[in-house]
Amino acid sequence: MKRLIRLLKKHPEKQCGASPPACAGPPGPASREARPKTGFLIQILLRALEPWEREVVLGDLTESGISGARALFEISGIVLRRQLQIWTTWRPWLALFGVVGISGSCLSVLMTGLNMSIWEQWAAWQRYGVHYNTGVTSFRDDVILMTCLAAAVFCITTINLSMLGRLSGRASWLTGLLFYCAVFDAVFIWIIGMNGRAAAGDWPWWVLIRGIFPISPQRICNIVVLFLIPAICAARIRLRSMIPATVALVAIAAVVAATRSHDLETYSSGAFRAPFWWMNLAPLLLPLWPILFARRNQV
Amino acid sequence: MLGEFEYLVITAAARCGEQAYGASIRQEIEGITKASCSIGALYTTIDRLEAKGLLTTRLGDPTPERGGRAKRLVRVTGKGAREASAFYQTVRRATEGLAWDAQ
Question: Chain B partners of A80 at a C-beta cutoff of 8 Å?
Fold first, then answer.
């Protein structure tokens, strides 16, 4: 394992399929001036290649006089082959099963719980001018729990996205998209799948569309605060610097959640059975596995 | 042993000599096979051959006819030449005594 971690650290370019030839570096300013225009789609596709290979491929196409649809076809071919090459290593698979599968599912549960808590509080304030669960849990505890949970989800998402980018390399666009689906849509899809109502036609099509596309203000807010900003942070912040804050937030959220469950059990005279402590903690701890990786990898 | 396309790439690179790079190798292969050769297949094969130590590549200087972009120059190594020769000998032995034209 240590050897693999050292390899990952020393040769991040190995994730990208092609290894750069000798003297590969950014093109000089003189070469930039002479560039012919290329289509928008081609430019997008070329982003999937390494900068040095982008230059070489475009140069070959220019020299061969290939442009338009044929150029698009040729570039699609090389991009597809490079993407497939990435999946011949273990890193993107670890990202897929570890980050998207395990962490994504747990984050989805946390995110759904957080959203429900916020919605309950908001609805209670709007309708009755009081906070939800008045008399059962204190307002202070509810606010602390929601704030800690939101901050913990933010940190955990950042850590996971950082690890996702590191493991997937140029396949990050795909694993990132799957991570997004796992975090934001897993619960929704699960509900539909379990009930089988969508298949039976009980639910109108717009409910499905609404579940998939971000059209509600809360969902947009979720995506911006708990996905896009963490994605930007993941690209800029060192993973190790986030570890102490994340661990502290997870610990506080777990303690407050356990206290809250205990309060509810007492209030309901045992009708509500509080889950075991580890059931509260598991969804918070499982997505933190990249921390172990980061600690050993010094990232 | 080399694959058929790998052999074609090494042969084309050897024919082009100092001027062996993506576009020239592709032109050479298309000239020999009379069939189109995709850039994706060519570069993937070059990478594979380089990983096997049969080719080496380096970035050349940018040229105006390429829109100011660099070439990926390719050179056949000694090991590559030996592998290509072995492949050729195998094909020659396999076809010895056969007259495909007559069938």
Answer: 40
Q: Please report residues of A whose CB lies closer than 8 A to that of B47.
A: 17-19
Which positions ≥6 away from A27 have C-beta within 8 Å? A51, A55, B62, B68, B69, B70
Beta strand B72-76 with B55-59: parallel, antiparallel or unpaired? antiparallel
pLDDT tens per residue across span A123-138:
888 888 777 766 677 7
The answer to whether the beta carbons of residues B60 and A32 sit under 8 Å apart is: no
Res A213 pLDDT > 90: no
**Of A8, A11, A30, nearest in space to A20 by CA:** A11
Which residue from A minimizes the CA distance to B46? Answer: A18
Test B69 with A19 for CB contact under 8 angstroms. Answer: no
Contacts of B57 in chain A (CB under 8 A): 21-22
How many other C-beta atoms can be found within 10 angstroms of the C-beta atom of residue A56? 29
- Beta-carbon neighbour count of residue B56 at 10 Å? 15
Q: What CA dihedral angle connects A241, A243, A248 and A251, to 10 degrees?
A: 170
Q: What is the CA A237 to chain-centroid distance, rounded?
A: 15
Band of pLDDT at residue A192, cut at 50, 70 and 90: low
Residue B8 identity (one-letter amino acid): L
Distance CA A187, CA A20 (A): 42
> Cβ–Cβ of B70/A59 closer than 8 Å?
yes
B61 touches chain A (CB under 8 A): no
Maximum average pLDDT range among A28-37, A140-149, B66-75: B66-75
A4 CB-near residues (< 8 Å, 6+ apart):
none
Backbone region of residue B63 per phi and psi (left: phi > 0; alpha: psi in -120 to 50; beta: other values)? beta
In whole angstroms, give the CA distance from residue A142 to residue A140: 5
User: Could you count the other beta carbons within 10 Å of the beta carbon of residue A193?
Assistant: 11
Confidence of residue A140 (pLDDT cuts 50, 70, 90): confident
Write out pLDDT tens, residues A80-135.
998 898 898 898 998 899 888 888 888 888 887 788 788 888 888 888 877 776 66
